[in-house]
Design goal:
The chain is built from 18 helices and 2 strands. About 40% of the residues are buried.
Length: about 425
């Protein structure tokens, strides 16, 4: 169900300002440097019907069930850790001028891999769902593939390996089989899962061209274009998605509003703050007219508008909307929810940016943000280390050096 999906896009090492997104939760990463607020953008996700575990039948066929995926969480962790180490080493060997394109892809790969590692449980669940969906799709194409190829692809998917499944989907596409748009889309999902974003983009483009009114294909294609910095193309696809959603659901439906929010995210990425602001104000006005002010999507959009106001240095307006997001969030989210935690961090960062250090400190203490972050990410998480460092800088700015010492990795020089 698209209208309840939320994903967070967070830059590696928490050095980028990102943007919040609605609605069902699939949160991947959520912390950020003191001066960078979070803006959420919705990505298309595939819902999965979870079946009971199933084993190979007497023909050797494997029908993968959600709880029967052979890939373990520890194996995923090892894979991510190894990939990150190798990518960091490769990045050191590249030249920022002659290897600019390769560096851009590698930076995105590292960003996504770090997000997944920082949120391992959510990443593991998401990975299993994608594998289950791919297997189910392959099964529907069983009459279009050699039996051996299908069996090998499904066995590999069971263990988290995607290349043979991608090859099977490509064979369907090349043979002009039935419903090749879905085959391209699934191949794109699997390529993206292993960080081959260029290949994923080509497959998503095929799916879009073949079925340009499919909102899931539109959303995934636009989102990856956005991540890869192809902004003008992404805007065209986002606008197409808005038009399709308006036709299918109506202008005021939450599905349409989500897609408008996604368009606002790219305007914000381009520093086109006025246009982003107008879209978000329109979204909020539409949602408020429904007389359902205590809902997750409205809270997200208040936060998103606040981040735009903050970028425009309209700090009073930003504070008001952060507080509105938090007020609703405290009603609709659990106290230790990563989204609510992020909004408190946004507010604290806003105060710090203005030199209101006592107010910034009060947010950390009143809501026990460090303890909550430790509960979510683990005490040894780099995310928690960054938050402790953020708190330490606040203490340092207040002249509370003894409090700052155990938290700040490096003090500023005068």
């Amino acid at each position: 169900m698209l209208n309840h999906i939320i994903t967070t896009k967070v830059k590696a090492l928490f050095t980028s300002k990102t943007f919040l997104i609605p609605l069902i939760l699939l949160i991947i990463g959520a912390l950020v440097n003191p001066f960078f607020a979070q803006f959420f953008e919705a990505e298309e996700k595939t819902s999965v019907n979870i079946s009971s575990p199933s084993m190979p039948n007497n023909k050797g066929e494997i029908n993968i069930a959600y709880n029967q995926i052979g890939l373990t969480k520890e194996e995923l962790k090892t894979t991510l850790t190894t990939f990150i180490s190798q990518a960091i080493e490769k990045k050191k060997s590249l030249n920022s001028i002659t290897d600019a394109k390769e560096l851009q892809i590698l930076t995105l790969q590292l960003e996504v891999a770090n997000e997944k590692l920082d949120n391992l449980q959510a990443s593991y669940e998401d990975t299993k769902k994608l594998l289950v969906k791919a297997e189910g799709t392959l099964q529907r194409y069983k009459n279009q593939l050699p039996e051996r190829k299908l069996l090998e692809a499904k066995k590999d998917l069971f263990n988290g390996n995607t290349l043979k499944a991608e090859s099977a989907f490509e064979e369907i596409i090349n043979n002009n089989g039935t419903n090749i748009a879905e085959a391209a889309f699934q191949a794109g999902n699997l390529a993206k899962l292993r960080f081959d974003f260029n290949k994923a983009l080509k497959q998503y483009e095929k799916a879009y061209i073949l079925a340009e009114d499919n909102l899931q294909y539109l959303g995934s294609y636009a989102s990856l274009l956005h991540k890869l910095g192809q902004f003008d193309k992404a805007i065209v696809i986002y606008k197409k998605a808005i038009a399709v959603s308006t036709k299918q659901f109506g202008e005021k439906d939450v599905n349409t509003l989500i897609r408008k929010n996604n368009l606002a995210t790219i305007y914000k990425t381009q520093a086109n703050y006025e246009q982003a602001q107008e879209i978000l104000k329109e979204i909020i006005k539409t949602e408020e007219q429904k007389n359902n002010t205590d809902n997750k999507s409205l809270a997200v959009w208040y936060n998103n508008l606040a981040t735009v106001y903050e970028d425009l240095a309209k700090y009073e307006l930003a504070e008001l909307d952060y507080l509105k997001a938090i007020e609703i969030g405290e009603k609709v989210y659990k106290n230790d929810d990563v989204i609510l935690l992020t909004w408190f961090n946004n507010l604290s960062s806003l105060y710090e940016k203005q030199g209101k250090y006592h107010k910034s400190l009060a947010v950390y203490h009143n809501k026990n943000l460090i303890d909550l972050a430790e509960n979510i990410y683990g005490k040894n998480s780099p995310v928690v280390a960054q938050w402790k460092n953020n708190l330490g800088t606040i203490y340092y700015s207040l002249g509370m050096y003894e409090e700052a010492k155990p938290r700040v990795s490096k003090f500023p020089t005068h």
